[in-house]
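Q: I have two molecules that I believe assemble together. Could you output structure tokens for the complex as a whole instead of separate predictions?
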Amino acid sequence: MTQPVRVAAGQGFWGDWLEAPVRQVSGGPVDYLMMDYLAEVTMSIMQKQKSRDPRLGYAKDFVPLMERMLPILAERGIKVTTNAGGVNPRACAEAVAAAGRSLGLAGKLTIGVVSGDDLLGRLDELLARGHGMKNLDTGRPLEDVRDRVQSANAYLGAGPVVEALRRGASIVITGRVTDTGLTLGPLMHAFGWRDDAWDLLAAGTVAGHTIECGAQCSGGNCLVDWERIPDLANVGYPIVEAYPDGSFDVTKHPGTGGRVTVAGVSEQLVYEMGDPREYITPDCVADFTTIRLEQVGKDRVHFAGIKGRAATDKLKVSIAYAYGYKAVGTLVYAWPDAYAKARRADEVLRQRLANLGLQFEAIVTEFVGVDATHGRLATADGVSPDLPEVQLRVGVRARELAPVDRFTRELAPLILNGPPSVTGFAGGRPKPEEIVAYWPALIDKREVQPCVDVVAV
Amino acid sequence: MRGRGRRLKTASDRRTVGRSDRKGKVLLLELAHARSGDKGDTANVGLIARKPQYYLHLVKHVTAARVARHFKGLISGPVERFELPNLNALNFLLHGALDGGGTISLKTDAQGKVFSTALLRMLVEAPR
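A: Yes, here they are, computed for all two components at once.
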């Protein structure tokens, strides 16, 4: 069999394990390192940072990470695909280039920059030309929140990643490219897959979905047989070993912890799944009911049979807008009758909020240790009066800051003027947080022109 | 054989959830494992049979209507079910599950990460 192309996952989200990508590139053979940084509202955080300083607006910790890895990447010829560029991929690329030069790697690096996803500056023009960008969940027109929009980014597919690689980039830094496109792009490039080879594109997309959450397919957050998953302290992140026919294995480096099994991989395949026959990306529509899995070795699962259909003529747009404010505060009540005390405290608190005439869109009370995660399902068999402790957790949300701010001052008094045996307020008063909400929409593909720049360092 | 004839308690025997009304039923946890995530205000739960022979049993007994009853009061919208026989899995979409979802939600589980095990609390007919 021909040599596979190996794509290793290094980061499953912004804030993932910093050791993972370093171990991926040093622990065995890989051809590409894929690192996903962007979640739905990450772009608005980055947009804010950029508005304060035009040199910011990307995943900043990507740069010191690259500084650590650049010598080994250059030595081993490993290429990188990442959406760490956020809303400012050019600035991110410049920072990585500067790090490369300071390491004496000038002349040895080529960086590709993918942009064109940022629609914030074009929103009014697009609206004026009849692109309503209605909310996919609620059907409401974007005009409802237009004046509060903080970021708007179309999801680009693998296409511009392929182009950057074709033009010689060894590091591809993008804005809002889909998580799956970061894996599919290298495979399309390496195997020369056409952009209408739907089954192959679907296979690369499934490969991307499987590894885009890092260790979540190789033993992390895995429910089945969780107690016997070995050595999570040393967990191996997943690697796709792909073949030109679209089949691939998912595995991890030898000697690492975790586990790659059909059962564990299946958990990742259904993660954030909608209609499994229609996994829609900019590149294709993948049919997850066609995936055939087989355990072909220790920590090695083979994927085959994957079918796909033609891509749609739309791109998803991720819009973030200012929604309002929220605050969450907690107090801990101890044995005896911990739950009853926490409930009484909640009643007292709610009565005081009502007496103050404060208006909230929502007040949510949870009793951590009793019902916070499973609600009434967790209390169907009653609640023991002998629970050692219960945490009262109360959150409020409003469109205005004032009631939320006032709420944050009503928790601490309960320590001395509410039910007894209460502690756990060392963190102080909760802080009101601005809520940036997510507005999913669609836009015609023709309206979005991906832009690829390739620069030698 | 350890325990000299005394049957060692399994984790499932030790578990007290739903014990009072099990009567010929088992916790779904014994038949399946699961993972859940979010899309806006919708939580998804992917339910995977622990053994291939359990899959059709799950198809028959873990219906969308039954899952909707299980989560009554905890979600505000309908439940959809999709079948993935190739993975011995069912995928459920629980609409209106996350208090607005994402950043709006005030819930501990704003991203629906543990709706998976909430579903596994369900009592279902024991397979033969």
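A: One point stands out. Chain B has one domain: 25-125.
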